[in-house]
Amino acid sequence: MKFLKLELDFNFKLLAITSQLRDYRLCYAINKYTETDFRKVEDLSLAFKNLPIKYFSKYLYCTKDFGCEFYLIANKGTEGYFIPEMKESDYFVLIKQYIDEEDLDLFHSQLKLIDDIQAVVDIDPTKLKSKENLIF
What we know:
Blueprint: E1 13-19, H1 23-34, E2 39-46, E3 54-62, E4 69-74, E5 76-77, E6 80-81, E7 91-96, H2 101-112, E8 117-123
Antiparallel strand pairs: 1-7, 1-8, 2-3, 3-4, 4-7, 5-6
C-alpha cells in the first residue's frame, strides 16, 4: 500500500492588522499611504463539512514589475473568523510570490504610518492552528 503525503506550501508572508476601519476605508488608506492599488475581488469562501459556508471580504493588489500578489482579507466573516485563534486581528495581508525583506519592511513601516491602524504584526503561518484557511 502506498500513501500520498501532502505538504501545504506556506511560501508567503503574512501580516496581521488591527484596525476599527471598515474594509473599504482601510483599503483606501492603505492605497494612499503605500502607493498600492488594492481592489475589491470576489469574497473568499470557506466550506467545511456540515457547516454553513463562510465568506470573508477580500481585496487584491498585483505588482506590475514582479507579479507579486497582495491580498487583504477580513478576519471577521459571515459565519465566524477566518483565523479563529487570532480574533484580536481585524485583517490579514497575505503576500504571495516574491517580495524581498527590504520591500516588506518598507510596506510594514508605511502601514504603521496610518493613524487608524493600531497594530501590524508579522505572523508565521505554520504556527497557526487554522493555517489551511490561508491556502486558496
